[in-house]
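Quick one, tokens below. Sequence please?
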């Protein structure tokens, strides 16, 4: 394909506008028709460029559209008093303050509509950045989508633009980096790369953008995240440092740095930085608003005579894991109050009878206290070195004796080990990479003569039907137990199992905190709490970590499980 330097979309628009201003609407329409045809041909040209891997041509097409957008924006400024109405696909002009406008003004509004720009930039930039072009959408579908969007959005666009500006101004107050983000619609695309796990493409794109904008704290932070997700930890830390030099108070960057530090075992600095995930502006650690509204003093780790309120944070698994530290806290602070997910109240009350335990649904904490802290915040005082992990006291969570007995009567009475399994997560992040397919779980179940007990939470009826069709044995579910909401009964089922095999989810933490033998299956890029390389967990001595040695490949892990169960 011959090298392309420019497509004159902007010049065609300018000629159309000039003819309109001169009163020659017919000529203006002809020029605009030429613009539409050129736009259509540009998309077809992009299709051919994709087929041969010519990303430079795709970049030229993107730049041509961006130039046309600039021209259209200038036109909007000149015609802010004009309102355009579209009826049945035919453009009609409403005159305001005796200012006239042609259909070219209406069409150009579509070019400036953010949804159009996002669609074009996201899809074509994605094609341009991705070297593996076969995985992208076909460009002919892209062309149809864009053209249909141009036709559908011919209504009151000037007013829409003003409303969007108001909304953007409102949002800017809620984010320190929003100005940086709004400089380009590319932010949406970068987020998409992260959400889809396309970290290599995100890295490439961020590096390209940093050449043009080397002082973007946002881009340095983004690049650091992409590198960390590829286990390029030292390079990622360098990127975070570059970002912090530009914006020293960016909570998200400081928090991202903490995650890498903790993953590499630098607990002192890691836990210090971890606090940046718990600000009212950036509640990354997803704690209840009661924490931010608390008027008492934040605890500094020094024992005192009054009551200390400890707020559970994040999900059930996090509260169970951080809750282990309460045993060490009680050694120095006698008066402790804890607030956790309502489903965990009974479990915590049995395990820590000396602590006043409340649920987040309770409107008022009756127990007196004068200072507060988050559960994760305890780590900077009680888990700031490997020695403190190793020397910490582990108190197993205590299940209900009565429910244990009831569950025991419902467990299958057959030979072999009773192995509890959980193979799915419904978390927003990395759910697909962390979970097993029905086929992979069936491979484990079919390899031995043991019995498998369902511990999987969530809406999984279809998953169970699929699994039982392809497995030689049925996955046993305990009748009458909702393992999603009834944590008490789920804990008792786990207590009645001989072994737990689970992916990284809340079931892994529940089983581990109950003291059961647990095999946790970890993806190649695992959560920071499991650190790197080791088969042992600093959090739970009874846990065996089974790690992927290749991204998205569970085959070696499954082979190791099958070999161990077959002995």
């Amino acid at each position: 394909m011959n090298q392309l330097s420019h497509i004159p979309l902007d010049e065609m628009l300018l000629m159309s506008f000039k003819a309109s201003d001169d009163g020659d609407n017919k000529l203006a329409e002809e020029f605009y028709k030429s613009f539409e045809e050129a736009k259509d041909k540009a998309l077809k040209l992009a299709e051919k460029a994709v087929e041969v891997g010519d990303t430079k041509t795709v970049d030229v097409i993107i730049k041509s559209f961006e130039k046309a957008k600039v021209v259209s924006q200038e036109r909007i400024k000149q015609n802010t008093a004009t309102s355009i109405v579209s009826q049945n696909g035919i453009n009609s002009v409403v005159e305001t303050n005796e200012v006239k406008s042609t259909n070219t003004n209406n069409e150009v509004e579509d070019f400036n509509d953010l949804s159009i720009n996002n669609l074009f930039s996201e899809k074509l930039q994605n094609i341009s950045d991705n070297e593996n072009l076969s995985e992208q959408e076909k460009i002919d579908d892209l062309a149809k989508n864009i053209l249909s969007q141009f036709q559908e959005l011919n209504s009151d666009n000037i007013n829409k633009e003003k409303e969007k500006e108001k909304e953007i101004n409102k949002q800017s107050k809620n984010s320190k980096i929003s100005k940086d983000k709004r400089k380009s619609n590319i932010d949406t695309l970068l987020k998409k790369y992260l959400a889809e796990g396309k970290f290599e493409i995100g890295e490439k794109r961020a590096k390209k953008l940093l050449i043009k904008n080397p002082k973007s704290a946002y881009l340095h932070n983004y690049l650091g995240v992409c590198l960390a997700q590829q286990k390029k930890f030292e390079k990622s830390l360098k990127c975070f440092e570059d970002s912090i030099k530009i914006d020293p108070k960016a909570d998200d960057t400081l928090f991202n740095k903490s995650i890498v530090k903790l993953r590499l075992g630098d607990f002192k600095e890691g836990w210090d930085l971890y606090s940046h995930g718990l600000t009212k502006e950036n509640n990354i650690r997803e704690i209840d608003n009661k924490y931010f509204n608390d008027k008492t003093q934040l605890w500094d780790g020094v024992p005192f005579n009054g009551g200390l309120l400890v707020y559970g944070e994040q999900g059930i698994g996090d509260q169970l894991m951080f809750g282990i530290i309460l045993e060490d806290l009680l050694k120095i602070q006698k008066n402790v109050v804890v607030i956790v997910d309502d489903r965990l109240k009974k479990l915590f009350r049995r395990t820590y009878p000396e602590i006043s335990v409340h649920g987040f649904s309770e409107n008022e904490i009756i127990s007196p206290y004068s200072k507060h802290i988050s559960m994760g915040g305890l780590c900077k005082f009680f888990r700031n070195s490997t020695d403190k992990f190793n020397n910490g006291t582990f108190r197993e969570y205590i299940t209900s004796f009565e429910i244990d007995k009831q569950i025991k009567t419902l467990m299958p009475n057959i030979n072999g080990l009773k192995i509890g399994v959980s193979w799915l997560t419904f978390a927003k992040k990395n759910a697909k990479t962390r979970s097993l397919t029905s086929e992979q779980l069936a491979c484990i179940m079919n390899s031995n003569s043991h019995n498998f007990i369902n511990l999987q939470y969530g809406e999984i009826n279809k998953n169970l039907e699929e699994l039982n069709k392809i497995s030689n044995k049925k996955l046993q579910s305990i009748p009458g137990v909702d393992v999603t909401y009834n944590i008490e009964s789920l804990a008792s089922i786990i207590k009645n199992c001989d072994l737990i095999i689970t992916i990284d989810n809340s079931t892994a933490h529940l089983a581990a905190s109950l003291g059961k033998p647990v095999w946790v299956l970890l993806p190649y890029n695992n959560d920071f709490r499991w650190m790197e390389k080791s088969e042992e967990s600093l959090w739970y001595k009874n846990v065996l970590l089974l790690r992927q040695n290749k991204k998205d490949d569970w085959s070696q892990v499954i082979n190791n499980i099958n070999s161990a169960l077959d002995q």
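The two ends are 61 Å apart (CA to CA). Confidence is low (pLDDT under 50) at residues 80-125, 131-162, 175-184.
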